[in-house]
């Protein structure tokens, strides 16, 4: 009898130990709602409270998924959706308008377990672009769909909510477009040509994004944006580009970027951070700061949020402020806006 019980007891102890180790693993997430010229004197107390509340809501939504044992991918989507549904951010409802007065939306997502990724760009009627980016990753053999093709794919697979383009548009963004186009006219009179937004330090990169680490040690990241105010002729920024605006690898980190996309594309920001960690052993914070320094050297600005495989968080930026938040299973948590770090 004792001989039979011993193996069963040993098996039970091993199972219990493995379960305890899994429960002891750190988990958490970090998010951003865009970087730019975000300073206290330009943000009213009331509006600041609205931003903090929405960031907290998104943070809580994603963390609840992780705390319940959900996947990092589920947490990323759960975090980004409330930000896409809020008119406060340049993603989904509240997205900026292009030169024709239309909202064009981009998003991407990546799974750190197997480097699977999905992205969409230039969609005009998808309520939650991050959901469609995930569908591209999971329900197609491709990584990116664009414009009408992305929306045709969404209709084909079903389960994706569509809205008229007017749903995304707000009076605030119409006023932003009016000012941008007036400024463009003034610049054209002063110079022969101008690149819209190329030297506009008042620009706010309202992109939203999230990076998450789940109880099983899996990483994921996602990013969603409306791009640049007054953008021209099918312009695409870094947000839907894997390796520029979004990256996740279980061996290193998960990261979402926000900033002047043209520079983030040229540096390959998201992949560059992961590569430094992989090849040099740099910490996630050191790697993120080094990569942002490369962006700044070219003349670009913005920020990133990242979490590594051990639950360490980085949120560097080279602008006056960045809407950002994080929450970890260790109990650490913060919601920040201005250059407090």
Secondary structure elements and pairings:
Blueprint: H1 2-24, E1 28-36, H2 45-67, H3 72-84, E2 105-111, E3 116-123, H4 129-139, E4 144-146, H5 147-157, H6 171-190, E5 204-205, E6 208-213, E7 219-225, E8 246-248, E9 253-259, H7 261-267, H8 269-280, H9 284-298, E10 302-308, E11 313-314, E12 321-328, E13 333-338
Parallel strand pairs: 3-4
Antiparallel strand pairs: 1-5, 1-6, 1-12, 2-3, 2-7, 6-7, 8-9, 9-10, 10-11, 12-13
Helix pairs in contact: 2-3, 3-4, 4-5, 7-9, 8-9
In short:
The protein is α+β, with helices and mostly antiparallel strands.
Global morphology: globular
Mean pLDDT, all residues: 91
Biggest β-sheet, characterized?
A: 9 strands, mixed
State the end-to-end CA separation. Answer: 63 Å
Features of this protein?
341 residues; 4-stranded antiparallel sheet; 9 helices; 40% helix
Can you characterise this structure?
By secondary structure, the protein is α+β, with helices and mostly antiparallel strands. The protein has one domain: (Glycosyl)asparaginase (Glutamine Phosphoribosylpyrophosphate, subunit 1, domain 1, 4-Layer Sandwich). The chain is 40% helix and 22% strand. The strands form two sheets. Strands 1, 2, 3, 4, 5, 6, 7, 12 and 13 form a nine-stranded mixed β-sheet that branches. The chain is globular and about 60 Å long.
């Amino acid at each position: 009898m004792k001989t039979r019980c011993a193996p069963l007891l040993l098996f039970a102890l091993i199972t219990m130990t493995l379960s305890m180790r899994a429960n002891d693993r750190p988990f958490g997430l970090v998010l951003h709602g865009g970087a730019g010229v975000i300073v206290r004197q330009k943000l009213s107390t009331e509006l600041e409270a609205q931003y903090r509340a929405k960031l907290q809501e998104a943070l809580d939504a994603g963390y609840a998924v992780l705390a319940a044992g959900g996947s990092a991918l589920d947490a990323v989507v759960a975090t980004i959706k409330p930000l896409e549904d809020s008119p406060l951010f340049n993603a989904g409802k509240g997205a900026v308008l292009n030169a024709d007065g239309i909202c064009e939306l981009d998003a991407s997502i990546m799974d750190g377990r197997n480097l699977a990724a999905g992205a969409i760009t230039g969609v005009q009627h998808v309520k939650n672009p991050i959901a469609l980016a995930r569908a591209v990753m999971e329900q197609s053999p491709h990584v990116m769909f664009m414009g009408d093709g992305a929306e045709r794919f969404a209709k084909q697979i079903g389960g994706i909510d569509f809205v008229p383009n007017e749903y995304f548009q707000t009076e605030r963004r119409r006023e932003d477009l009016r000012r941008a186009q007036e400024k463009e006219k003034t610049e054209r009179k002063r110079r022969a040509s101008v690149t819209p937004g190329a030297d506009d330090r008042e620009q706010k990169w309202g992109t939203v994004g999230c990076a998450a680490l789940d109880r099983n040690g899996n990483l994921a990241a996602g990013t969603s944006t409306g791009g640049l105010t007054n953008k021209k002729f099918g312009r695409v920024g870094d947000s839907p580009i894997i390796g520029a605006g979004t990256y996740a690898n279980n061996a290193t980190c998960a990261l979402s970027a926000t900033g002047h996309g043209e520079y983030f594309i040229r540096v390959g920001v998201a992949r560059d951070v992961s590569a430094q960690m992989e090849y040099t052993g740099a910490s996630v914070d050191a790697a993120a700061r080094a990569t942002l320094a490369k962006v700044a050297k070219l003349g670009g600005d913005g920020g990133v949020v990242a979490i590594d495989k051990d639950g360490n968080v980085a949120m560097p930026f080279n602008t006056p402020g960045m809407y950002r938040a994080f929450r970890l299973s260790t109990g650490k948590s913060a919601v920040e806006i201005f250059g407090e770090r």
